[in-house]
Amino acid sequence: MLSLIWLAVVLSIGSIGLLYWLIRRSAATAVASLFYLVPAVTAVMAYVLFGERLDGIAISGMVACAAAVFLVNRRA
Fold first, then answer.
1. pLDDT in tens, 5-54
2. What is the pTM assigned to this prediction?
3. Are 69 and 33 spatial neighbours (Cβ–Cβ below 8 Å)?
């Protein structure tokens, strides 16, 4: 039951609330670019929490995505 509450309240309502808050504070394109970091963050969380393996290709992909998001969001 607690896991269902976590999924319904925190992950659903909390994530949408955070998305709207970020859009109000900055440009929608900057916020949308952060979605490219979701797979990398998920992989790192799986590595830390569950002992999943990260190979060189995965790490280089994470670095490439993070660099691209940084370039998009940097101030010119």
1. 887 877 888 888 888 999 999 888 888 899 999 999 999 999 999 999 99
2. 0.72
3. yes
**CB 43, CB 52: distance < 8 Å:** yes
Taking CA atoms, 40 is separated from 18, 27, 32, 66, in Å, by 19, 22, 15, 9
Contact between residue 69 and residue 32 where contact means Cβ atoms under 8 Å apart: no
For helices 38-50 and 56-73, the axis angle rounded to 10 degrees is 140
Report in angstroms the alpha-carbon separations of 6 from 11, 12, 22. Answer: 7, 9, 22
Which residues fall within 8 angstroms of residue 65, CB to CB, at 6 or more apart? 36, 37, 39, 40
For residues 73 and 33, what is the distance between their CA atoms, to the nearest angstrom? Answer: 8
